[in-house]
Design brief:
868 residues, alpha+beta, eleven-stranded antiparallel β-sheet, five-stranded antiparallel β-sheet, 21 helices, bacterial flagellum
Length: 868
């Protein structure tokens, strides 16, 4: 930058002069700055509008599906007994509900003890033992607690809470109150001593529970009895009892798993049986119209997705299928492979005639050839094995290779007799395929996919639908794998498949139905057998649960160190329990309410659970109180008001956006208004600046072609008609229309109003055709709204597709605007550089002038001094 001397000698206002001289450059720069500012405001306007359009697009996505309108409302005859909410899948009508039993959490009220405060210790209660070891068991989970004589009541509460219980000590009533955090039998709890000191500590705390005291002085639910029952006269006998219990547990769980698998297979076989019968009927009808079609179709079905790369060949009365391979014959023709009933492979070569656009197929012969491959995998043209050395050497040209028996390769022999591992030859057998000399073009070969499509197209729509459904069911069952059962086990997939197919072969449809449904006898038929097996499996599972104390041991591999350690741990626990069974003291005043599952009956079917909440067939039921043998009614119907509100909410959102678009499109022109420069802003008040800029911002999208295109697409979608049941419907069919240019408020002529809408002053006095239609024919309204939403969704989606100028889900050319903004920034910097360079040029000239004038003044002063 040049040194700038501002009129020190000349007295000129150099800065103002230079500024005036470069003003044309400054004006150009400000022009681009204003254009960039206007572009930035336009980007902001589009971003704001795009956010709202995308929100509408997202919201109407769900409106394309019936679930959005399939709204239900429900009422309960006695709301003190239950509350019910209906989902979209809940059936309309009245259902019967009985609440037989409420779920309860396990709850214990301790006996009164002499602890005056939460800080009272166990020692102060008379406990004199050492480490008191306790166990808190909830379901399958067991947690250990250790207390001591110095443990306070607060410590006990803290440990019980850490173990997963709700616990509190009330010093006013001098009792512990303990409960499960969740309801249900599985969430119930027991607190027992793991040693004598633990049992003693529980007694001192007033929470040693053994059930009700009997007339003989014993307790009805001694918590140590379960483990003590495994105790023998010696440790060896105890181990034997434990291992017998493990065997019994494993047998019960194994049998339960097997019976559950059999039950599942039987139920799946019912669907398979009926689908198999349907499929055979379709095959029969096909053969009646075109002999041999069924065999051909069955063969093509087995190919599945590989049909596209296969051909089918007529072979007498049957067909052979050849699948495309990656092999070629010696001439490079693609090979197709067929595997016969003896698992032998046969090949044909496909020879294409490009001029005639035809393909001929020829049988090929297979011939083995010895191949010699070097270390790079390249096949050698000349190589032979030297028989003179027991076939262990190979000669190639003048090189000799010796066989390495370890890997079978031949390695180059060095002069010193060692092997060069970098130079090797692999000898292998290669099968080559050649079209037989006497081969003739095989006739009757056609594309498997074309053959399949031809048969399928011969079916009418109803038959095609039945065929697709039946085939999917049959293939799913036949291809399913038994993970628990063996193929020869009773009710395995293989045995059930064979039984159904044999029944059909014997006496057709009637035999299969007899097999599936039975004779009406409770033990006959697949469904009854499945139910019986399921009940037996449930009984076994309950029996196994009764011996859950060996569950952990049973999960370990017998004879492993983990099994031995677990067995010894259980042995110690059994011995301790046996001791505590007779020595532990119980508090007779302690009361325990057992955890309880809930039980309800809906339409006569029993359901149980560990909570009071149920979700059944679209209904969410919250049981509040037992009804006994009396039933309460649940009435479910279409929520017509909900459907109405869904339509109204959609129109409200649409109206808000289309009104804003209309306002932006019809905005007044800003005329000659342009963004202000900093100098111009300095001459105006903040209010004047705001008013000026608002005038420009409001007009940015005026008559914008992109905005107009989006508006037109949305309006066209909303005006479209939908055909339902042969009749065409539009929004006006349901009393929904615009007010028109003459009656609508400014910029609201494209908004829709619902006749009879009490919130709309324009149409509240008209007949409510929409609600009437929802009440009379809700399905038609729902179908119409689905299609209308789909039309609008597609229209907006098309406008939001990604292009070279715009990003995905964007209705304006954001990429283009971003590029333009960047270009403005670059141009402005270029003009700033031009201004700076020009200023430097002028300031340099003025500096030279000032220097010259200074020298002139100095000279004049010198001359004057001679005359003074």
């Amino acid at each position: 930058m040049a040194i700038r001397l501002s009129g020190m000698t000349s007295g000129l206002d150099t800065d103002s002069i230079v500024k005036a001289m470069v003003s044309s450059y400054t004006t150009r720069k400000e022009k681009y700055q204003k254009a960039q500012t206007k572009l930035e405001w336009t980007q902001d306007a589009w971003k704001s509008l795009n956010t709202k359009v995308y929100s509408l697009y997202s919201n109407i996505s769900n409106l394309r599906f019936s679930t959005a309108y399939n709204l239900k409302k429900t009422s309960v005859s006695d709301t003190t007994k239950a509350t019910v909410k209906a989902g979209s899948g809940a059936p309309s009508g009245t259902q019967s509900l009985k609440i037989k039993q409420m779920a309860k959490a396990g709850y214990m009220t301790g006996a009164e003890i002499k602890a005056d405060s939460e800080k009272t210790t166990l020692a102060q209660l008379g406990y004199t033992g050492g480490d008191a070891k306790l166990e808190v068991k909830m379901g399958d989970e067991t947690k250990s607690i250790t207390l001591s004589a110095s443990s306070t009541m607060n410590d006990v509460v803290k440990e019980l809470r850490n173990a997963g219980l709700d616990a509190n000590y009330d010093s006013s009533y001098k009792r512990f109150y303990i409960s499960s955090k969740k309801t249900g039998v599985a969430n119930d709890f027991t607190i027992t001593g793991s040693n004598i000191d633990g049992a003693s500590a529980l007694y001192s705390l007033g929470i040693a529970y053994g059930g009700e005291k009997t007339t003989t002085g014993t307790y009805s639910s001694n918590p140590y009895d379960e483990y003590a029952a495994l105790h023998g006269v010696s440790d060896d006998e105890t181990r034997a009892k434990i291992e017998a219990a493990v065997t019994n547990y494993n047998n019960l769980t194994t049998d339960a798993a097997k019976m559950n698998a059999q039950s599942k297979n039987l139920m799946n076989a019912v669907n398979y049986g009926y689908s198999y019968v349907t499929l055979q009927g379709i095959y029969k009808n096909l053969d009646e119209k075109n002999a041999g079609y069924s065999d051909k179709l069955k063969l093509l079905e087995k190919l599945g997705s590989s049909r596209d790369g296969a051909v089918i060949s007529k072979n007498g009365d049957s067909y052979d299928t050849y699948t495309k391979t990656t092999l070629t014959d010696t001439a490079g023709h693609t090979l197709y492979k067929y595997i016969d009933s003896d698992n032998n492979s046969h090949y044909i070569a496909a020879v294409n005639d490009t001029d005639k656009h035809t393909t001929s197929y020829y049988d090929v012969t297979e011939s083995p050839r010895t191949v010699y491959t070097d270390a790079d995998g390249k096949e050698l043209e000349a190589a032979h094995i030297d028989h003179s050395d027991d076939m262990t050497t190979l000669t190639v040209g003048n090189k000799t290779y010796k066989k390495d028996e370890a890997d079978g390769k031949y390695y180059l022999q060095k002069e010193d007799g060692t092997a060069d591992k970098t130079d090797s030859i692999t000898v292998s057998q290669k099968t080559e395929y050649t079209i037989a000399a006497d081969a003739v073009n095989k006739t009757g070969i056609e594309s498997a996919s074309v053959a399949y499509d031809t048969i399928i197209k011969s079916m009418d729509e109803k038959t095609k639908s039945s065929y697709d459904e039946a085939l999917a069911s049959v293939q799913a069952f036949e291809n399913s794998k038994d993970e628990v059962l063996g193929s020869d086990d009773k009710y395995s997939v293989a045995s059930l498949t064979k039984a159904i197919q044999n029944a059909y072969a014997g006496n057709g449809k009637e035999a299969v139905e007899q097999l599936l449904a039975g004779n009406g006898n409770e033990t006959d038929g697949f469904v009854n057998k499945a139910n019986a097996l399921e009940e037996a499996a449930e009984a076994n599972t309950k029996k196994a649960a009764d011996s859950n104390i060996v569950k952990e041991l049973a999960s370990k591999q017998k004879d492993s160190s983990e099994y031995t350690q677990a067995l010894n741990d259980l042995l110690d626990r059994v011995n301790t329990a046996y001791t505590l069974q007779n020595k532990a003291l119980f508090n007779s005043q302690v009361k325990k309410v057992a955890g309880q599952d809930s039980e309800i009956e809906l339409n006569g079917v029993k359901y149980t659970g560990d909570s009071n909440s149920y979700s059944i067939n679209g209904l969410t039921i919250e049981a509040l109180a037992e009804t006994g043998d009396s039933a309460i009614s649940i009435t479910t119907s279409t929520d017509t008001q909900g459907v109405y509100d869904k339509v109204k909410d959609f129109l409200t959102e649409y109206n808000n956006i289309i009104n804003e678009m209309t306002k932006l499109y019809n905005a007044d022109s800003a005329g000659s208004y342009e963004p202000l420069t900093d100098d111009e802003k300095d001459q105006m008040s903040d209010k004047e600046i705001e008013k000026w800029e608002t005038k420009i911002k409001d007009s940015l999208l005026r008559r914008d072609s992109t905005l107009g295109s989006v508006m037109t697409a949305m309006q066209t979608a909303m005006m479209s008609s939908v055909e339902i049941g042969g009749k065409k419907y539009s929004l006006s069919s349901f009393g929904i229309s615009t007010l028109g240019f003459l009656n609508a408020a400014e910029n609201e002529q494209n908004a829709y109003h619902i006749d009879g809408d009490e919130d709309d002053a324009n149409t509240s006095g008209k007949t409510d055709k929409l609600m009437a239609a929802i009440n009379d024919d809700p399905d038609t309204v729902m179908q119409f709204m689905q299609q209308l939403s789909t039309n609008l969704y597609s229209a907006i989606g098309d406008k939001m597709k990604s292009t070279d100028l715009s990003s995905a889900f964007t209705i304006y050319n954001d990429k283009q605007m971003k590029t333009e903004y960047t270009n403005y920034t670059k141009t402005i910097k270029e003009w700033e550089k031009k201004i700076s360079d020009r200023e430097d040029y002028y300031y340099n000239k003025f500096t030279q002038m000032e220097s010259a004038m200074t020298k002139l003044n100095s000279t004049q002063s010198s001359i004057s001094s001679y005359f003074s």
